[in-house]
Every structure is written in structure tokens, then in C-alpha cells.
Design brief:
With 293 residues, this protein is of the alpha/beta class. The chain has helices spanning 6-26, 43-59, 74-86, 105-111, 123-130, 139-150, 170-178, 198-202, 254-257, 271-290, and strands spanning 2-3, 33-39, 62-68, 92-95, 159-163, 187-191, 207-210, 228-231, 235-238, 246-249, 263-264. It is globular, with a radius of gyration of 19 Å.
Length: 293
């Protein structure tokens, strides 16, 4: 069993980007600039956005955090997005989800300029990705594909099962695994909460990508010997014995599954760090393609 170390791989990517930033600075150019919009004080979102800002600082990017109160109206948020869309000094930006219930997430994501949509959530980018055109790929699926590539895992012709059909992970993941490139060319089954006989399907899979958000859902009896297991789940499970009062748990029952798997991602330290690394990668792509320098 080999652990797919997302933390180490993400640090490798950050180091590579840092070298590119140094080269830009030597040429007298400004570094890439990533902005993040956070509405409210959701604990997980604060942690995640803080990690993105620190990562930017580490590799030499410019970063801006726009932290708006929970009471921010939809119109006020849309005005802020328009301001970022037109700011030539900002190469890419994200609107951290989830948003407060009184704000229409779809309307907000549609308002983001596709050229600055480094999260890859805009329909323009999603459609281009599906057609194998140049686009911004959602950071989490992008990170998983990059992890498979850097560990030289050949998935061509293999049966991949994706659990979860969200537009952020499940659907784009199914597209990327089946695309005509490397890594790719897998035969993909996309499963979800209404799928019947899920266990029978996962037991036939060479690769299982679980993006369900249910702690310890995938167990040893649901996979075959030698399967590649990618755990996208990140759930805070209350635990009074821990200093923070919770533990971060994935979809996969790691201790139960690891001895049967050929490759497996841990939680934390697997897919999560890769998501941030690929967001930074997308920001560099935005800078390279569209920056008015």
C-alpha cells in the first residue's frame, strides 16, 4: 500500500510556482494576484481561506482577502464581484462557499468573469473542460488528476467509480478521468445517493473516488483488493478529547481500508492540500493568459 501524499506533492507544486514568480520579478513584472471573498464567519471557510492567503505569501503571490459581514446583501456582493472583474491588478478570485442563505449562489458564481474564475465553477469553464478545451478546471478534481499523474498511476482502461455528483467534484471528476489524455481513458461510473447496489459497484472498481461527505462511509468490504482509493471527504466530527473539540474525518474508513488498497489518500494531508496548490496553479494560468502587463 502506497500513501498518496498530497501535502508533499502540493509543496512541490508551490516550490515550482515560487521559481516562476522569481523569474517574473527578475524581469521587472508584478507577481500573480489572487483575491478571496468571504461572507460571514463560517469556521471551516475561515480556516480554508486563511490557508490560501498563507500559501500565496509563501510563494510570492499577491493576495487580497475581502471579508464581508454575514448581513451583506446579494446586491452588495455582486457589486464587489464586479469590482474584482474589472480590476486589472487582480488575476483571479474566488468566492468562498457556502454563502449565507439569503444569497443566491448560482447568481453569484455566474457573475464571476470566466477569465478570473480560478475555482473553475463558471458554466463557461465547465463546458470548455467537458469539451477538452483550454479552461480553468475545478481545483479539487484538478488536484486529484495531478496527484495520479505525479505518482505515475496509469488509469487507462481501468474502471473508476465516483461517489457523489456535485458540480464541484463528482461531475468534473468523472469527465477528467474519462478524457482522452493521460491520466485519463478510464471507464467511469458516476454514483450518488439514489444509486442502487452501490457496494456491488464499488467492489468492481479499480479506482474509487469518494466525494460524499459522510464520515467513514467507505469500508473494506466495499472495495476489491488492490483498488486505488481517493478520499475527497473532509468532515469535522465532534471529539471532546481533542484540543479543538473535533477531528477531521474523510469518507473512507482509513485504518479499515488501507491494507486492502494499492494506493490511498489520507485525511488530512491528501486531497485537501492539492486543492489549494491547484488553485494557485490556476491563478498562474490566469496571469499568463489574461494579465494586462
Amino acid at each position: 500500500m502506497i500513501i498518496l501524499d498530497g501535502k508533499k506533492t502540493s509543496n512541490d507544486i508551490k516550490s515550482e510556482l515560487s521559481v516562476l514568480v522569481d523569474e517574473l520579478m527578475k524581469k521587472g513584472k508584478r507577481p500573480p494576484h489572487l483575491a478571496a471573498v468571504l461572507v460571514g464567519n463560517d469556521g471551516a471557510s475561515l480556516t480554508y481561506v486563511g490557508s490560501k492567503v498563507r500559501s500565496c505569501e509563501k510563494i510570492g503571490y499577491l493576495s487580497t482577502l475581502i471579508h464581508l459581514p454575514e448581513t451583506t446583501s446579494e446586491d452588495e456582493l455582486l457589486q464587489q464581484i464586479n469590482s474584482l472583474n474589472t480590476d486589472k491588478e487582480v488575476d483571479g478570485f474566488i468566492v468562498q462557499l457556502p454563502l449565507p442563505k439569503h444569497i443566491d449562489e448560482e447568481k453569484v458564481l455566474m457573475a464571476v468573469d470566466p477569465h478570473k474564475d480560478v475555482d473553475g465553477f463558471h458554466p463557461t469553464n465547465f463546458g470548455k473542460m467537458a469539451l477538452d478545451m483550454e479552461s480553468f478546471v475545478p481545483a479539487t478534481p484538478y488536484g486529484i488528476v495531478e496527484l495520479l499523474d505525479r505518482y505515475r498511476i496509469d488509469i487507462s482502461g481501468k474502471h473508476a467509480v465516483v461517489i457523489g455528483r456535485s458540480n464541484i467534484v463528482g461531475r468534473p471528476m468523472s469527465i477528467l478521468l474519462s478524457r482522452k489524455s493521460s491520466p485519463g481513458n478510464a471507464t467511469v461510473t458516476l454514483t450518488h445517493s439514489r444509486t442502487k447496489n452501490l457496494k456491488a459497484i464499488t467492489k468492481e472498481a479499480d479506482i474509487v473516488v469518494s466525494a460524499l461527505g459522510v464520515p467513514n462511509f467507505l469500508t473494506q468490504d466495499m472495495i476489491k483488493q488492490g483498488a486505488i482509493i481517493i478520499d475527497v471527504g473532509i468532515t469535522r466530527v465532534p471529539d471532546d478529547s481533542k484540543p479543538k473539540g473535533y477531528v477531521i474525518t474523510g469518507d473512507v474508513n482509513y485504518e479499515n481500508v488501507k491494507e486492502k488498497a494499492s494506493y490511498i489518500t489520507p485525511v488530512p494531508g491528501g486531497v485537501g492540500p492539492m486543492t489549494i496548490a491547484m488553485l494557485l496553479q490556476n491563478t498562474y494560468h490566469a496571469y499568463s493568459r489574461y494579465a494586462d502587463l
